[in-house]
Amino acid sequence: MSLSLDDEVRTAYTAVRADSDPTNWAVFKYDDSGKKIVVAGTGSDGYSGLIGHFQPEERAYAFYRVQTGDDLSTRAKFVFIAWVGEKVSPLKKARVSTDKAVVKEVVRDFSVELFANTIDELEEAKITAAVVKAMGANYGSSTN
């Protein structure tokens, strides 16, 4: 079975990456046939809008823009999330490793890649901490 991506996946990815677009997340899921990845949702409401798309019986992928930095500068960093809910069958769980590569043909540029099975693993503070860690230097407030 060959997996394909709906053309709208690229459109949603581009919207999240664009500084001029308010879209800051996109979620991609399998269609009913399981043979195509489609856009399940996009939004500009940040973490609160994104997190509701991860269900225990589903597999999904997400692309999320995080604004981070310090008092001297802020910058956009991007997170790729592979989600395999706890109730997903073993066979479908195994397919994610190869299916993820197909998604990453479009979703290419990100600072952090996360894999999660539970919502607790995707707490906003954990995502932010992973992004800050990936950034390297984090000088914080200036004392001069």
Describe this structure in words.
This protein has helices at 7-17, 46-50, 90-103, 124-135, and strands at residues 4-5, 25-30, 36-43, 59-69, 74-84, 112-116. It is of the alpha/beta class. Strands 1-3-2-4-5-6 form a six-stranded mixed sheet, with helices on both faces. It is globular, with a radius of gyration of 16 Å. The termini are far apart. The mean pLDDT is 91.
Counted beta strands:
6
Mean pLDDT: 91
The coarse overall form would be: globular
| Secondary-structure element order, N to C | EHEEHEEHEH
Strand portion, in percent?
Answer: 25-35%
Termini separation: 61 Å
Strand order of the largest sheet: 1-3-2-4-5-6
Q: Major beta sheet, specifics?
A: 6 strands, mixed
SS class = alpha/beta
Low-confidence stretches: none
Helix run count: 4
Fraction of residues in H or I helices: 25-40%
Evaluate the radius of gyration. Answer: 16 Å
In short:
This protein has 144 residues and is of the alpha/beta class. It has helices at residues 7-17, 46-50, 90-103, 124-135; strands at 4-5, 25-30, 36-43, 59-69, 74-84, 112-116.
Question: Topology of this structure?
Answer:
Layout: E1 4-5, H1 7-17, E2 25-30, E3 36-43, H2 46-50, E4 59-69, E5 74-84, H3 90-103, E6 112-116, H4 124-135
Parallel strand pairs: 1-3, 5-6
Antiparallel strand pairs: 2-3, 2-4, 4-5
